[in-house]
Amino acid sequence: MSRLQLGRVDYINYIPVYHALEEGLVPLEADLVKGTPDRLNKLFVSGKLAATPISSIEYARHSENCLVLPDLSISVDGRSADILLFSKMPVTELEGKKISLTKSSASSATLLKILFVHYYQVEVEYRTDAPDLDKMMKKADGALLIGDSAMAAHQRVKDLKLPYYVTDLGEVWKQFTGEKFVFAIWVIQRSLAENNPDMAELICRTLRESKKISAGCRKDLISKAQARSGLPLRVIEDCYANLRLDFDESYRRALLAFYDYAYKGGLIEERVKLRLWGEVSE
Hints:
Helix content is 46%, strand content 22%. With 282 residues, the protein is of the alpha/beta class. It has 2 domains: 4-76 and 181-264, Periplasmic binding protein-like II (D-Maltodextrin-Binding Protein, domain 2); 83-177, 3-Layer(aba) Sandwich (D-Maltodextrin-Binding Protein, domain 2), CATH 3.40.190. A 5-stranded mixed beta sheet has the order 7-6-8-5-9, sandwiched between helices. A 4-stranded antiparallel beta sheet has the order 3-10-4-11. The chain starts with a strand and ends in an 18-residue tail after the last helix.
């Protein structure tokens, strides 16, 4: 029997979940498949991953085929430090301008579209590009970056005093709704969970245990993040200070609020229910 394939987003804000697994502190009879959110989304939807973190908007689009694993998310409660819009002018002055979206994340792009319509009430044009700030800004008046590339670009803007405005989408969402923002959740193939509940429970328990043990290894997390990203210590510490990894009732409410706006804006076709492994469907 082939080994299970589990997704692992290759950004430093996922290290606090996977560190203990990667260091052998928690046993795992599976292979970790690393990649960007968009790559893992596609692998999961095509059935090539048993479980993975998935962009929250992609769950809304494929909820019938998966179940959410409890107690895990990539979220913020206000400022995110790594979901950033860079623009040549204030956001309120971008009417009719072009915005370049990173192709690395679907949730952040959806969030930006919601905020433009419902918060800023500004109409813009969108294009999608590889996550490279200089190239993106040559083609557009604004650029959305996420994760490590967003933090590296922000540091470069500061160091070189580039004439860009920087808007943190987590912070704006909090101002707009008062809610947390859930960028990613962990999901498992529904067919696997229903046909092999013991395996599903093992995956769930293993990820939660890894998160718990990793939380006690803060110095190691930061050292690993520095080695992988090359970002300054203060940037990594700021990222981790803002990062939230839980998925309790307040996070679920926040995620459903996001889905509600996405539905109203025609960004998803149906209203979404959260179906969690081991819990009664909501």
